[in-house]
Description:
The protein is an alpha/beta fold. The chain contains 18 helices and 17 strands. It has a domain at 337-495: Isoleucyl-tRNA Synthetase, Domain 1 (Orthogonal Bundle).
Amino acid sequence: MEKKFYLTTPIYYPSANFHIGHCYTTIIADAIARYKRLCGYDVFYLTGSDEHGQKIQKKAEEAGVTPQKYVDDIVSNAKDLWERLNISYDKFIRTTDSEHVICVQKIFEKLYKQGDIYKDEYKGLYCTPCESFWTESQLVDGKCPDCGRDVSEVSEEAYFFKLSKYQDKLVKFYEDNPNFIKPDSRKNEMINNFIKPGLEDLCVSRTSFDWGVPVTFDDNHVVYVWLDALTNYISALGYLSADDSLFKKYWPCDLHIVGKEIVRFHTIIWPIILMALDLPLPKQVFGHGWLVIDGGKISKSLGNYKDPREYIDTYGVDAVRYFVLREVPFGNDGNFSEEALITRTNGDLANILGNLVNRTIGMANKYFDGVIENRNVKEEVDDKLISEALELRNKVDNYMANNEVSKALEAIIDLFRSSNKYIDETMPWVLAKDASKKDRLATVLYNLIETIRIGSVLLQAFLPDTSAKIFHQINTDLTSFDSITEFGGYVSATKVNEAEVLFKRIEN
Ligand code: ME8
């Protein structure tokens, strides 16, 4: 059977001001998507934008344009940023796409007809910026528990979705599928904070604004944002459309990666919607932490914001990707600072990786005019490096199975660190002075190039540009996973290209 992997990020609220925190989910998901492709999976990586709701309508009014014009103008900002970051998504869904709108409408009708959606009066507390309803007991000091801003009391006719009906089934699903919510701490949070107090039915329509998916059988109502937004994961695959081949192929989702503040929507509301539709549930929802600055969330309203493109322009795309992927233990919060970005770039990328490739290619050109033969003059010191290189794939595989991207990357850099140590131990410049050591010198350089190749095959998932540059410098097209199961794949007597600097040291 063909191995498939369906992976999603949340769909982002359109904004002209994405910050480095927004890039976090997308870069992590990109590394996972690329890694799975390397492993031979047929991957479908979905991202997109979440364009309806009162907040957008207000912003469009302020800008004096229609909401559609407003979102059309700024959605390109996300696409541009993802391109700059080398995000290899397979589809970008917009909730204003007509296929999505029709799918949401069909689902709403279906759930209404089967009695899971009913009409009632909504009285409650609403946070406009977060587009969330809260109960009195959920407020913190009388304010929105997510953003700390004021909430307002609203009362209007609305449709409700019977979450409560599915509560027991959901708990049973959690019990039967211990990997559904990861990390485990997030699962306990869901059970203790939301499920144990009892699930309340969810308001799924609004009448106080009209920028949303219209309810087909009741003119005054538009679908309230979470039912609309979550449905993107199946509408993007053509669910309930004339062509649902992608849906048949890729559903259920293998991994939804989401920020911790929206885990509850993805692990309570989403599975219940799917249960009501009688569809299989996602295999896993992974709730990652935030990138913070000085302990606080990065946001324009807090004033600690910088356009990520500035970092890309200054330090290069792979320095930014590396920092995000390496610095934060997946699941926890991590601190972002430009200083830390510089330290990581100088330490791991310039001093360890860049230096290794540069020295090795430099010596190959200097001592052998770039043509490195494996002359097989072995010494004991080689064994350690070779076995480390051969173990790397397994190590990385084990970490990636748990989405431990940071540890996987650390293991790769460790191999490059060991390679630098191997240079110090074998001292090629000393061997070069002794004509009788020529074959040993060639073997040392061959071992180094082969180790660099093996590390770079794995590095492709994380830093695709850098790996491509390394493959060019060592002049190889052996870049597949299958090519690193044995040591010695690099073709003996290949002529390497000129050394080029991969990462310049940044003066702070
Ligand atoms: O939540 N650090 O959209 P969004 C890490 N439209 N991740 C961060 C972050 C930070 N500082 N700031 C934001 C939404 N994110 C909804 C989703 S899905 C059906 C609907 C992450 O634009 C955040 O955690 O507010 C989320 O995963 C993603 O950016 C999009 O956030």
